[in-house]
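Hello again,

I reread your note about wanting to compare the complex against the isolated chains. To keep things tidy I'm splitting this into two emails, and this first one only covers the full assembly. Below are the input lines as submitted, including protein chains and any nucleic acid or small-molecule components. They are followed by the predicted structure of everything together. The single-chain runs will come separately.
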Amino acid sequence: NAGVMQNPRHLVRRRGQEARLRCSPMKGHSHVYWYRQLPEEGLKFMVYLQKENIIDESGMPKERFSAEFPKEGPSILRIQQVVRGDSAAYFCASSPRTDGNTIYFGEGSWLTVV
Amino acid sequence: AQTVTQSQPEMSVQEAETVTLSCTYDTSENNYYLFWYKQPPSRQMILVIRQEAYKQQNATENRFSVNFQKAAKSFSLKISDSQLGDTAMYFCAFPYSGAGSYQLTFGKGTKLSVIP
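Full-complex prediction:
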């Protein structure tokens, strides 16, 4: 039973380029969360999605960031026109339901903006 | 707003000894879960232990146990017989479940070093 799969694990982008991070939840999980971890800090919630719906994007910057979880395929976190401050680890988590009893994290994607 | 406070940025412990990491939180909710996550140098987030607030018994997972004091809103993690592989960042996390969402609020973490 594969866990939460994230790719790429490491991504380097120049300022102004786009970054796309992918997350495949655990089998049977229909709830996906994205978190960001800046250096020397804890994880910060960005967005919560269910299939084809954004439920809560209160933690996501209003500009340049977007997320989707289509009916088929992985969830995508997209960052347009990246800046150096976007350099961080981005973690995806999934759960089969909303009660928070069973949340599993992926191994993270490390974005470096040069 | 929920807050989670870890007051110990760094700690160290001798191998085979016991160490306790502290965590306090603030909430107006009555039923909830609390989590401790471990982040080793590989940076993966690993669930160490979770506690259900309505259970009076403290959770235990092998060498890891919690001291949960609901009235004081305190949720400390005790690691017994510390091993070198326990060296990691440890994060306390508390869920917020308002407005149809479910998100975890993390503390800033405690960096634990196990000394041989």
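For quick reference: The CA atoms of residues 68 and 75 of chain B lie 5 Å apart.

B.
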